[in-house]
From TrEMBL:
Pfam families: MerR_1. This is MerR family transcriptional regulator. GO terms for molecular function: DNA binding. SMART domains: HTH_MERR. It comes from Nocardia terpenica. Residues 28-79 form the HTH merR-type domain. GO terms for biological process: regulation of DNA-templated transcription.
Length: 258
C-alpha cells in the first residue's frame, strides 16, 4: 500500500521511513533527482511504495557510506552497473588516490631529508615531477619523439622493457631518482644527444630503422648486467657492436626515396 508524503514527511506506519525521512534534506534531494521513485497525489503529496522505497534508500545510504558518488549509485539503481562493478570502480579510483598521496609523501620527505643548502634545488627537481603518472608520461613522450616512426607494437614493447613504472609506494631515493630521469628528458640537449647516438647524423639515410632499433636493443640487453654491477664504461665487444650497428643496417643511396 502506498505511503503518502507531504514535503518528504512520511505518513505511514513503516518505522524506518518515519525515522529517516521526516524533514530529511538528503531524502528530498534523492526524490528530486529521481533516485527514489515517487509519484504525486492529487493533493501534491509524494506517493511511495513503502517497501521498495525502504530498500532503495537503504542501498543508497550504504553505498554513500562507502564513498560512492551519486552517478555510480544511480547506475546501480537503474541496473546499468552491478554493485560489484560500482564498488570495483571506486576501489580503483582510491588506488589512484593512494598512489598520488604516496608519491607526494615521498617527495615531501625527500625535501625534508636534503641538506639545508640543497633543499631549494631538490624542491625544484621534485616539483617538476610532482605526480608519478605524469612523470611516466613525460618519459614516454621523450622516447616516442626519439623513436618516431617506430611501429606502435615495437614502441609498446620498448616502453615495457625500458621505461620504469613509477613505484606505487616510493621511497625517498626512488622518487628522487625518478624526478632526475624527468629532468634529463626535459633537457633539449639530452634529446639531441640521444637522437645522435641512435640515428647518427643522417637518419634519413637509414632504410631499415626497425632493424637498427632491434640491433641496438640486443646490445642494450648485453650491457644491462654490466650496468647493474657498476662496471665503468670501457672498450670491448659491446662498444664495438654499438659502433658497428648503423653500418650493418642497410642505408639508402643518396637520391633514393626513404
Amino acid at each position: 500500500m502506498p505511503a503518502t508524503i507531504s514535503s518528504c514527511v512520511i505518513a505511514t506506519n513503516h518505522p524506518f521511513l518515519c525515522e529517516i525521512s521526516s524533514g530529511d534534506a538528503s531524502t528530498r534531494f534523492y526524490c528530486d533527482e529521481g533516485i527514489l521513485e515517487s509519484r504525486r497525489s492529487a493533493g501534491g503529496h509524494r506517493m511511495f511504495d513503502a517497501d521498495s522505497a525502504t530498500e532503495r534508500l537503504l542501498l543508497v545510504r550504504r553505498l554513500r557510506a562507502l564513498g560512492l558518488g551519486l552517478s555510480s549509485i544511480t547506475d546501480v539503481l537503474h541496473g546499468e552497473r552491478s554493485i560489484g562493478e560500482a564498488v570495483a570502480a571506486e576501489s580503483a579510483r582510491l588506488d589512484g588516490e593512494f598512489r598520488s598521496l604516496a608519491w607526494r609523501r615521498a617527495s615531501l620527505r625527500a625535501v625534508e631529508a636534503a641538506a639545508p643548502t640543497q633543499r631549494a634545488e631538490r624542491l625544484a627537481l621534485l616539483a617538476a615531477a610532482q605526480d608519478g603518472g605524469a612523470a611516466h608520461d613525460c618519459l614516454v613522450r621523450f622516447w616516442r619523439r626519439i623513436l618516431m616512426p617506430t611501429r606502435g607494437c615495437d614502441f609498446d614493447s620498448f616502453v615495457c622493457g625500458n621505461i620504469p613504472e613509477p613505484p606505487a609506494d616510493p621511497s625517498v631515493d626512488e622518487v628522487v631518482a625518478y624526478a632526475e630521469l624527468v629532468a634529463l628528458v626535459t633537457d633539449p640537449d639530452m634529446n639531441n644527444a640521444v637522437r645522435q647516438q641512435l640515428w647518427r647524423n643522417q637518419s634519413e639515410l637509414i632504410r631499415d630503422r626497425r632493424g637498427l632499433f632491434f640491433s641496438i636493443g640486443d646490445i642494450m640487453l648485453d650491457v644491462i648486467p654490466l650496468v647493474s654491477e657498476g662496471v665503468r664504461p670501457h672498450s670491448g665487444s659491446e662498444l664495438d657492436a654499438f659502433v658497428d650497428a648503423p653500418s650493418a643496417t642497410p642505408q639508402e643511396r643518396r637520391g633514393d626515396s626513404v
